[in-house]
Specification:
By secondary structure, the protein is an alpha/beta fold. It contains 7 helices and 6 strands.
Length: about 200
């Protein structure tokens, strides 16, 4: 359902310029760049726009080493349609699976493949955590931007909070793409130490 919604709205008019933001959206843009934040809101409240504007802010503030993670190629293509508006290249926008494969291969690890996508996700994030421990990795990105953060597994969030100095995420619990039986661990909002901002309007 969510993917169909996004695809239907993938056109030249989805991008909102900073001057077109409403007051609550502008307040998100004014949040400190030195702190991690979680933005929550309903469909159409501007979360994806704000994520990409935030990523541009980070680059313009002298922190170009950013990673923007989305779940599917459809969502990546959707975000990339505003490419000329960004201060960063669209190569910074990666799918979760694509990033995981590249990360493991960059460290000489053969990614585990499985026909069951959820099993593959769990196996690969375990491999990534092993690489992080072995190489003592921490803060290798200035910032990591996460779209649809409600769909990340706890171990995936652990990885991103380890690898990113700053995490800027957007979520809507009513738009979950993936449903698993697995324990969710610490609540998503709790990971942001109270730095949660709510958008209320479509």
């Amino acid at each position: 359902k969510f993917t169909r919604y996004k695809t239907a709205n993938m056109n030249n008019t989805w991008w909102v310029k900073p001057d077109d933001l409403d007051d609550r959206q502008k307040a998100v843009i004014d949040l400190p760049l030195t702190t991690s934040h979680l933005i929550v809101g309903p469909p159409g409240s501007g979360k994806t726009n704000l994520l990409l504007l935030r990523a541009s802010q980070m680059v313009r503030s002298g922190k170009p080493n950013i990673l923007i993670v989305v779940f599917t190629r459809t969502l990546r293509e959707f975000a990339a349609t505003g490419g000329t508006q960004y201060a960063f290249g669209v190569d910074k926008i990666q799918t979760l699976n694509g990033w995981a494969l590249r990360f493991l291969r960059d460290y000489g690890v053969t990614p585990i493949k499985d026909a069951d996508f959820e099993k593959q996700r769990r196996s690969q994030v375990a491999q990534i955590k092993e690489v992080i421990a072995q190489h003592k990795l921490s803060g290798i990105y200035d910032a990591i931007v996460l779209d649809e953060a409600q769909d990340y597994q706890p171990d995936e969030l652990d990885v991103f909070f380890t690898l990113g100095n700053i995490i800027f995420a957007a979520a809507d619990s009513h738009q979950k793409i993936y449903v698993t039986d697995e324990t969710q661990g610490p609540a998503l909002g709790a990971r942001f130490a109270g730095h949660q901002y709510t958008l209320k309007h479509h």
